[in-house]
Specification:
The chain is α/β, with parallel strands linked by helices. The chain is built from eight helices and 13 strands. A nine-stranded mixed β-sheet has the order 4-1-5-6-13-12-11-8-9, sandwiched between helices. Strands 2-3 form a two-stranded antiparallel ribbon. Helix 4 packs across helix 5. The longest helix has 16 residues. The N and C termini lie close together (about 10 Å).
């Protein structure tokens, strides 16, 4: 099975633009390893193509982590976003919608889960501290990953892969405001913030943490592989 996965965009400086172009595209090897271990053949996808062609042979779309989506994408002004991105989220919104048209399963990781929420009409809380929310650490002071537990909701697909109280690797300061229509919450952080969602048709799973770093990805991809095999 082939898994199409998105990349992080890094703008090139004006000094290097002549050789670099507008962006460099990066992909952590931990995503690739996670997919290979679950039996998928990973294939990085890049912007500029027709989403229908890009996803033509894909059995799974993985929306990887990244920065902060531009708040204008969900109709809000900047309220604590850090160097918000617009081009990459716009591209991934197109990919997500095309995957929906083709009934391709989608796994959204960190920013990828937020892209799913935005596509489904849900806003983001742009910064937990700016919003004045009491919360467990979801990133360290120097913006590095932290470990916290998640409470997995019984009866969800995620509960088939993870036990409640699972420790996950987290690195974010934004969260979705609410569960999108047609979805259910699949996991919560100890502070009550939504850490995972899944669609009622089982095709879409979003996790706010990084399963490629903490070992939780294998179980998630096992059930997504089963779903992909039903296409």
């Amino acid at each position: 099975m082939k898994a199409a996965l998105t990349t992080v965009w890094k703008p090139c400086s004006s000094q290097s633009a002549a050789t670099c172009g507008s962006h460099r595209y990066q992909l952590n090897s931990s995503y690739v390893s996670m997919l290979y271990e679950a039996g998928f053949i990973p294939a990085a996808i890049f912007p500029g193509g027709n989403p229908a062609e890009v996803l033509r042979d894909a059995d799974l779309l993985v929306l990887t982590g990244g920065g902060d989506p531009d708040p204008s994408l969900f109709g809000k002004k900047d309220q604590g976003s850090r160097e918000p991105e617009r081009e990459r989220p716009l591209w991934e919104l197109e990919l997500y919608r095309e995957a929906g048209r083709k009934s391709i399963p989608v796994l959204g990781i960190c920013m990828g889960m937020q892209i799913i929420a935005i596509a489904e009409g849900v806003s983001l809380i742009q910064d937990l501290d700016t919003a004045g929310l009491n919360h467990v650490p979801h990133e360290s002071i120097d913006r590095k990953p932290v470990i916290h537990m998640v409470d997995v909701v019984k009866g969800t697909l995620l509960s088939q892969a993870l036990k409640s109280g699972e420790k996950v690797s987290s690195c974010h300061h934004q969260v979705i405001e609410k569960v999108p229509e047609g979805f259910m919450a699949a996991a919560f952080a100890p502070d009550g913030l939504i850490e995972a969602i899944e669609s009622s048709d089982s095709l879409v799973t979003g996790v706010q943490w990084h399963p490629e770093r903490d070992g939780t990805g294998h179980g998630i991809l096992e059930y997504m592989k089963t779903i992909a095999g039903r296409k």
